[in-house]
Each structure stands twice: as structure tokens, then as C-alpha cells.
Amino acid sequence: MDYEPHLALFAGGNDAQRFVKKIGEFGVKHLNPGGWLFLETNEFYVPISTEILKKLGYVDIETKQDLNKRDRMICGRRVGSYEI
Is residue 29 part of a domain? Predict the structure, then answer.
């Protein structure tokens, strides 16, 4: 808590995944086909975040661990065109 502002840690409230959805939608609209999206998320939200990216049409979705061996980074590749 000494490094992150309160808003960065707790802005999600009851719907923390709305940010993942909004960022994923932005990526669909603005990334070139084949472009990669990288997100840092809470380790407990990795499964739902992955599902959101899959529903938005991302492929090659991977999870990366932080230095404490916790799943924290999700990356996915945009392919083709996709309508939101």
C-alpha cells in the first residue's frame, strides 16, 4: 500500500473487471491485427480477466507471474476485425 494510490487498488468496487473489459474493448478498436495487449491484474481476477479477453476475440492469451510467483500479468493478441 506504500506504493500505489488508494484509487489504483480499490477503484473497481463491486465490478473490478469493468476496467479489464474497457481496456480490452479499447484494444480491439485501436490495436493493429496481431498487436498485443498486456494487463496487470489481481491474481484472483486472472480467470475472469482471461474469459473477458477471450470473449472480445483475443487469442494466444497467456498469464505471467510476478517476482513473488503470483499470476499478475495477462497478455493476449488481437486478430482480424471484431465488432463490439
Answer: yes
